Amino acid sequence: MTSSFNYSTHLIPPRPITSQSTQRPTSQRPTASHHTTTEPNSSLQQTNKRRCKCYDMYKQVVPFAEAWSWQKSIVEERKLLVDGNEDGLDSLIVVQHQPVYTLGTASSEENLNFDIKDSPLPLYQTERGGEVTYHGPGQLVLYPILNLRFQKMDLHWYMRALEEVVIRVLFSAFSLKASRVEGLTGVWVGDKKLAAIGIRVSKWLTYHGLALNVSTDLSPFSRIIPCGIKDRGVGSIKELLIGSNRPSSTSGYHEEGDGKLIDIAHESLLKEFCEVFQLELCHQSVSILRSPDR
């Protein structure tokens, strides 16, 4: 269960789809593809896919509070459009975060291995579901702001769909066979959790989202019980690839550093996100989010 951050501290005062794809059965809809158009009158309007504004900052390390604020602002704007039946575009924010701990609505201090009044990192109580998690550099975070009226009005389906995105990425880009775990949310390789998912939905508009550990420093997870799960660990793509010693399309990343892994994971995440949710991405200037008028 996951989200984004800032360096000012806000202290505290599903069922699995085993072998099924979460992609909607839509025989009339064309196969989704990852487009980067910014033209409002492009040929994308000739397709049946819903368009999605993409604010892609995947190489930037963004404070959590900043990204959290962007999400809430977009959701409030979209609510007005929903009320007027004018909500025509979804949104996606892609970032990395400065080191931070975030708490969900189900969080308990028992899952913190430190005094909540003396957190080693910025600590935020959020409105997403789930327990405590960590975000930091090397972890790709996706914040989809989707109108589920155009997908499926089912929160369990939505979380399974987010898991499906990650499962496809791990297999197609890194030859890692990932799975779900009965009764838990997230994506696992063996007993290690690589992706955390935590969402909030208002008027069927989603926010918060998923975090995938690519080349993340995992040591901050030792100060918490991630997602409140005591008997399983946390892993990263980098850690698993180093330990596997098997040839893959990422075999040359050692020479180029962690940046190559991030690039590969980012490209695959966007592709599979579009595929699962049948969306066309329309890349936007990040300055729109950072505008003082927002």
UniProtKB/TrEMBL annotation:
<dbReference type="InterPro" id="IPR004143">
    <property type="entry name" value="BPL_LPL_catalytic"/>
</dbReference>
<comment type="similarity">
    <text>Belongs to the LipB family.</text>
</comment>
<dbReference type="GO" id="GO:0033819">
    <property type="term" value="F:lipoyl(octanoyl) transferase activity"/>
</dbReference>
<comment type="pathway">
    <text>Protein modification; protein lipoylation via endogenous pathway; protein N(6)-(lipoyl)lysine from octanoyl-[acyl-carrier-protein]: step 1/2.</text>
</comment>
<feature type="region of interest" description="Disordered">
    <location>
        <begin position="1"/>
        <end position="46"/>
    </location>
</feature>
<protein>
    <recommendedName>
        <fullName>lipoyl(octanoyl) transferase</fullName>
        <ecNumber>2.3.1.181</ecNumber>
    </recommendedName>
</protein>
<keyword id="KW-0808">Transferase</keyword>
<dbReference type="GO" id="GO:0009249">
    <property type="term" value="P:protein lipoylation"/>
</dbReference>
<feature type="compositionally biased region" description="Polar residues">
    <location>
        <begin position="17"/>
        <end position="46"/>
    </location>
</feature>
<feature type="domain" description="BPL/LPL catalytic">
    <location>
        <begin position="86"/>
        <end position="281"/>
    </location>
</feature>
<dbReference type="InterPro" id="IPR020605">
    <property type="entry name" value="Octanoyltransferase_CS"/>
</dbReference>
<dbReference type="InterPro" id="IPR045864">
    <property type="entry name" value="aa-tRNA-synth_II/BPL/LPL"/>
</dbReference>
<keyword id="KW-0012">Acyltransferase</keyword>
<dbReference type="InterPro" id="IPR000544">
    <property type="entry name" value="Octanoyltransferase"/>
</dbReference>
<dbReference type="Pfam" id="PF21948">
    <property type="entry name" value="LplA-B_cat"/>
</dbReference>
